[in-house]
Amino acid sequence: MYRVLITDPLSDQGIERLIEADDVEVVKKTGLNPEELLAEIEHADALLVRSQTKVTAEVIQAGKKLKAIGRAGVGVDNIDVAAATSRGVVVVNAPDGNTISTAEHAFAMLIALARNIPQAYRSTINGEWKRKQFVGVELHKKTLGIVGLGRIGTEVAKRAHAFGMNVVAFDPYLTAERAKKIGVTQATLDELYAQADFITVHTPLTKETRHLINREAFEKMKTGVRIVNCARGGIIDEHALLEAIQAGKVAGAALDVFEQEPPGKHPLFDLPQVIVTPHLGASTVEAQENVAIDVSEEILHILRGEPFKNAVNLPSIPVELQEKLAPYQTLAESLGQFIAQAAPGALHALTVTYSGELTELDTAPLTRMIIKGALSYHLSDVNYVNAPFLAQQRGVNITEQKTSQTRGFTNLVTVEITTDQAQRKVSGTLLNGLGPRIVKVDEYPIDVVPEGHLLLIQHLDQPGVIGRVGTLLGTRDVNIASMQVGRKQIGGQAIMMLTVDKPVSPDILAQLAQLDDVQSVREIDL
Ligand SMILES: NC(=O)c1ccc[n+]([C@@H]2O[C@H](COP(=O)([O-])OP(=O)(O)OC[C@H]3O[C@@H](n4cnc5c(N)ncnc54)[C@H](O)[C@@H]3O)[C@@H](O)[C@H]2O)c1
Ligand SMILES: O=C(O)[C@H](O)COP(=O)(O)O
């Protein structure tokens, strides 16, 4: 039974699939203080949050069974993603479900700002009738500057067009083709500042975007510009915004998000030009249901070991590619496990070479499986998420390459490692209908199913050596299920690969290594 802990308010309809799942126990505990969260997380297999819960490294560390963190929404800045990655915890979000709601909210804020709606409302219900004071400006024929033309920025652009606005956009990843398709003028930030009557930001909060809109930026803007932030507090320097409004440079600002949330009594709130909402961008019935459904499904997939798509700390793999790579996963992982056990010493470098039909695919996910397999021999907490991170942390040099040399196989994966004591190579293939096979170890051709208990023995190709190995194992009650011998030339270096029915004890391994003409013995468990 998987325990899924939910610590922020989520739509009940949205989490129905989790509640109905036979293998899941849902525990809803909102408003936990940090100590309570640390206590609860200890028993959770998955954690589901919105933007309120701060999922710190300490929380992730305390989650001894934690496999997944689901964010019912877009921004993951309340989650220490790096800490999750290093612990092998998958972080998934729901990037699409609240796009429309947030774009509509940003547009609502834009109109409210242009027409002083919140200020006029407050004045009117207080018994005043100040028609002159609340004269606004039209959006029609004005220029809207959009900083960050992703999902939400693009939806805002569409709405701006409907209102007859010119749209200029800055996004470092915006191509000329995409700008043309959306109907926006691509601009540098400085050009955008110089042209825009309204500026709305729709970027994530990152090192680059923190205080992107600062004092220098305000200086480059038109006098009378109006600013909207429904993305993240911190993208706009609130202190610089306050000064720019007081100086008359900025005519008004509409803010849904703040550097500190909740912001408490903020100096910006004393300015009549500022209108605010309490982080409501995604707060619609529809968006909350969408994101909760999306993230619940993702969590179920992760817990059940099924494919999932919106991982924040894993590269996304298109479904068609997932389907093509799926049959190779076992081969990839077992080649990694095999090679790590075949070579003694600390791993320095691992090179994977793909050939045959695999050269046409994006093989990065298979390399990840190989790294996982190789590291799992040395480390206990390695998984598909943290394997490349752990390899990098330990200074292992990973190389992936492709070659047209097929050596007669329709597909071939070769893994070569260098440790501080040895260098070894193993090649495997996926035989149509028969599954994975190891077809070469170093330069010796063999044919072995990569599973169970294997003995890899390096020896001299001399009469009697095979018999001596067989006799020793037999007398020590170790049954040999299969045996393969590979050699390059008669009487030269050779390898023996045995599949045995049970693990072989260290003293038997030591005795095997002492036999005449036997040079080395490695036990490999797959
Ligand atoms: N107020 C809310 O309730 C609410 C709701 C949903 C999303 N959001 C926030 O809105 C933001 C955007 O969400 P989205 O779904 O559109 O994300 P997205 O990833 O689709 O788009 C973000 C865009 O920002 C661009 N970008 C990144 N760095 C940039 C930079 N330095 N300058 C300019 N552009 C840059 C990216 O290229 C991308 O196109 C996120 O921060 C998200 O957390 C807020
Ligand atoms: O990044 C998001 O998805 C929004 O900020 C929504 O946050 P919320 O789930 O706390 O409303």
TrEMBL record:
<dbReference type="InterPro" id="IPR045626">
    <property type="entry name" value="PGDH_ASB_dom"/>
</dbReference>
<comment type="pathway">
    <text>Amino-acid biosynthesis; L-serine biosynthesis; L-serine from 3-phospho-D-glycerate: step 1/3.</text>
</comment>
<comment type="function">
    <text>Catalyzes the reversible oxidation of 3-phospho-D-glycerate to 3-phosphonooxypyruvate, the first step of the phosphorylated L-serine biosynthesis pathway. Also catalyzes the reversible oxidation of 2-hydroxyglutarate to 2-oxoglutarate.</text>
</comment>
<dbReference type="InterPro" id="IPR029752">
    <property type="entry name" value="D-isomer_DH_CS1"/>
</dbReference>
<dbReference type="InterPro" id="IPR029753">
    <property type="entry name" value="D-isomer_DH_CS"/>
</dbReference>
<dbReference type="InterPro" id="IPR006236">
    <property type="entry name" value="PGDH"/>
</dbReference>
<keyword id="KW-0028">Amino-acid biosynthesis</keyword>
<dbReference type="InterPro" id="IPR036291">
    <property type="entry name" value="NAD(P)-bd_dom_sf"/>
</dbReference>
<dbReference type="InterPro" id="IPR029009">
    <property type="entry name" value="ASB_dom_sf"/>
</dbReference>
<keyword id="KW-0718">Serine biosynthesis</keyword>
<feature type="domain" description="ACT">
    <location>
        <begin position="454"/>
        <end position="526"/>
    </location>
</feature>
<dbReference type="InterPro" id="IPR045865">
    <property type="entry name" value="ACT-like_dom_sf"/>
</dbReference>
<dbReference type="GO" id="GO:0004617">
    <property type="term" value="F:phosphoglycerate dehydrogenase activity"/>
</dbReference>
<protein>
    <recommendedName>
        <fullName>D-3-phosphoglycerate dehydrogenase</fullName>
        <ecNumber>1.1.1.95</ecNumber>
    </recommendedName>
</protein>
<keyword id="KW-0560">Oxidoreductase</keyword>
<keyword id="KW-0520">NAD</keyword>
<dbReference type="Pfam" id="PF02826">
    <property type="entry name" value="2-Hacid_dh_C"/>
</dbReference>
<dbReference type="InterPro" id="IPR050857">
    <property type="entry name" value="D-2-hydroxyacid_DH"/>
</dbReference>
<dbReference type="InterPro" id="IPR006140">
    <property type="entry name" value="D-isomer_DH_NAD-bd"/>
</dbReference>
<dbReference type="InterPro" id="IPR002912">
    <property type="entry name" value="ACT_dom"/>
</dbReference>
<dbReference type="Pfam" id="PF19304">
    <property type="entry name" value="PGDH_inter"/>
</dbReference>
<dbReference type="InterPro" id="IPR006139">
    <property type="entry name" value="D-isomer_2_OHA_DH_cat_dom"/>
</dbReference>
<dbReference type="Pfam" id="PF00389">
    <property type="entry name" value="2-Hacid_dh"/>
</dbReference>
<dbReference type="Pfam" id="PF01842">
    <property type="entry name" value="ACT"/>
</dbReference>
<comment type="similarity">
    <text>Belongs to the D-isomer specific 2-hydroxyacid dehydrogenase family.</text>
</comment>
